[in-house]
Amino acid sequence: MSSVTHDVPRRRMAAVERRAGILAAALDAFAAGGYHETSLGDVAERAGVSKALIYEHFSSKRELHGALLETYVHELLATVAEAIATAEQGEQRLRAGLEGFLGFVERRRDAWRMLVRNAAEGDLAASFERLRHEAAAAIAALMVADAPPESPAAGVERELAIEMLAEQLVGAVVSLANWWDEHRDVPREQVLAIAMDFAWVGLERLGEGEAWNA
Amino acid sequence: MSSVTHDVPRRRMAAVERRAGILAAALDAFAAGGYHETSLGDVAERAGVSKALIYEHFSSKRELHGALLETYVHELLATVAEAIATAEQGEQRLRAGLEGFLGFVERRRDAWRMLVRNAAEGDLAASFERLRHEAAAAIAALMVADAPPESPAAGVERELAIEMLAEQLVGAVVSLANWWDEHRDVPREQVLAIAMDFAWVGLERLGEGEAWNA
DNA sequence: AAGATAACTGACTCGCGAGTCAGTTAGGAG
DNA sequence: CTCCTAACTGACTCGCGAGTCAGTTATCTT
């Protein structure tokens, strides 16, 4: 009875590694359940660590969550920005941006889920909303630059119309990304094709079929 | 000092009215802060009532929240369904549906906010996701019925493509509705015009410009 | 006016989760 | 081998919020 198997006397890790481990565990947890449904106890357990240790690396639950949020929002933004920078033409640029975005969703599945899971509540919403809005604004800016001065829909202010169009575009793509997240068997190119099919046509209309490709 | 002004001895109300009052207060609170950020104490205060009384009408916080959710999800669904039923043609039907939807968002601003605020977390997400999916499925069904059998985007399964298209459509409209919620000065017809401009063109592409109007 | 009933409340319990602290121990520097 | 630091933990506190209960009072009925 005294044959204690004395299971693995847990290795100590350097602060940086441990921090990374905690972040990974937290990402898992938050992606699975959202901010409020996740306790630091959960995170600690997933990380195989005591709750107290978490406080050696992060001063509060919010800070931990915020660190993740910032990391991935930044990565997402950078990815898309970089992708966009490689293409000059209107349609190609849109395609490149979408490709970058979808690549992120594919590569950082958990991160994407975490972003979406925290899109609605409290001041957490602010981060996501800002991201969304930044995307819409960027798109709107491109449209303003490229589109002809005619109003796309009768009786609507040009700037307003562009803003709304951009908002819809973002919404459509985000929605599609979420759908894709639950249909991972569908290859990325197909999703991209559909997204382009939907978005580009809508955008093209803005320029009445010309002006955008030059 | 003994001049007690004995402020308004709060009127008693019949159970039904009180219940309604509590529901209204809860709607306010949940719309403003989301489920988790709202305590029953908040709701009670807003309703001008003790917390205990709430439990005379609802057995738990979830039930209270659920009652609101069900009410408005149902109303929204019914509104759109009714609107759709009045139009037979493809484009007119889409316009009618959108009009009904935007009408709901305009009329039940708080309810809409509450729905959106609870779209992401835990099993609360299920309700909203189901609603979303129901909408997408309905749209997809219409498309399947009306669209020609050609594949809309090269190399993508027809059914899959339609599903994705519908998902994007829903996302775009929801996104636009949220934007509108923060730009209430923009009249409904303009929002509708933009939504149609975006959505219909994308859809028309599916049928290559014909087949939908007959 | 008396009694009954249903609206209503203050003051409770109780569990959960964020955050803390007084230590214990691994493992590297000398 | 011996310190010394930095990783690490168990066992706490403490406030908050859901849910409860014993009682109080308004209003309707007779």
The major sheet of chain A is characterized as:
none
Number of helical segments of chain A? 9
Secondary-structure content class of chain A: mainly alpha
Enumerate the spans of chain A where pLDDT stays under 50 for 5 or more consecutive residues: 1-7, 208-214
Secondary-structure element sequence of chain A?
HHHHHHHHH
Q: Give the terminus-to-terminus CA distance of chain A.
A: 81 Å
Largest interface: A-B, 48 and 49 residues
- Backbone shape of chain A: elongated
How much of the residues of chain A is beta strand, in percent? under 5%
Helicity range of chain A: over 70%
Mean model confidence by pLDDT of chain A:
85
Alpha-carbon Rg of chain A, integer: 22 Å
- What is the multimeric organization of the chains shown? homodimer
- The number of strands of chain A is 0
